[in-house]
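Ticket #4471: structure output looks truncated?

Reporter: J.K.
Steps to reproduce: submitted the chain below (302 residues) through the standard prediction queue, then opened the result file.
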Amino acid sequence: MKKIIIAGGAGFLGNTLTQHFKSKAEEIVILTRGKTVKRNNVQYLTWDAQTLSGWEKQLDGADVLINLTGKSVDCRYTQKNKEEILLSRVRSTQVLNEGIDTCANPPKVWLNSSTATIYRHSEDKEMDEFEGEIGFDFSMNVAKAWERAFFETSNPAVRKVALRTAIVLGKKGGAFSPLKSLAKIGFGGTQGSGQQFVSWIHEHDFCRAVEFIINNNSIDGVINIVAPKPIVNREFMKTLRKSLNMPFGIPLSASLLSIGARIIRTETELVLKSRRVIPKRLKETGFEFVFPKLKSTLENLA
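Returned output as attached by the reporter:
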């Protein structure tokens, strides 16, 4: 590949993808709210994720566009934060659509973030791309609006794929670091009932899945980016403790989690919602996981 654009690429997932692709692409352009700077073949370019201001010229002739833009959901769901979570995703996607419309040679493929949280809370059923059930609450409605903004305009020259990504476990960011810290101080026990499912993916497989989709012209529409086997929270935390050689973990009830969430300014949904999501399309199109099981994933990261 000659050129990859990663919008909102200065965070954990953007940095992970940049490290993965910087030896595979001649040029990577990161659209960021930070300063414009160039480091070897990686250029950081300032944008506001809302208006066309010159950055859109970078899209013309690029091979791949990946959009990761969106305010973190690791916050309290105040009205202000809810509005920012929604608008940061929808408007950035809309303005990228507008930018592509200015291109004589638009990117061949556009991968836009979505979320596995689009599916309803499920302990009873595995959710795939074909029969997964999408419900109605704040998080699901944000995901639906996000995908609607992505797909509402089309360009026959651009293949579009929405990445319904679960929790990405990585060494230098994402959910693994705080979970590891909790477990190391003795709070690595069951969270809530422990029956809620956790869908996850190793950062290495996340990057490999993105590359696989880029190189597979038959894949468009929505696709789940998750490991093959979701696991209940009780077993997830038990496996985490074993990987860290922690002999015990104090369980945290839903009420204690609610108090803790208020203190650290987040929401319990992040750990109590049951995400039982499976990667049916990835498997059907031939993708093979390096880390299909949680045990080997956590041992690798720990």
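Triage note (M.O.): checked the attachment and the full token line is present. Residues 79-101 form the longest helix (23 residues).
Status: closed, working as intended.
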